[in-house]
Amino acid sequence: MATYLYCLLRASGDPPAGLAGVDDARVRAVDLGGLVAWVSDVAETTIAPSPARAQAHDRVVRAGLERATPLPARFGQVLADEAELRTALSARREALESALQRVDGAVEMTVRMLVRSADRQEAPGRAEADAQSVTSGRAYLQQIAAIQREERNVLAKAQLVRDQVSSVVQGLVRAESLAGATAGSSLVTVSHLVPRENIGAYRSALQALRQDDPTLAIMISGPWAPYSFTEGISA
Amino acid sequence: MTDAGFDQTDEEALVLSDLLSHVLDKGVVITGDVIISVAGIDLIAVSLSVMISALETLERRSVGISGRLPHVLGDLSVLPPARER
Question: Does A229 reside within a domain?
Answer without folding.
Answer: no
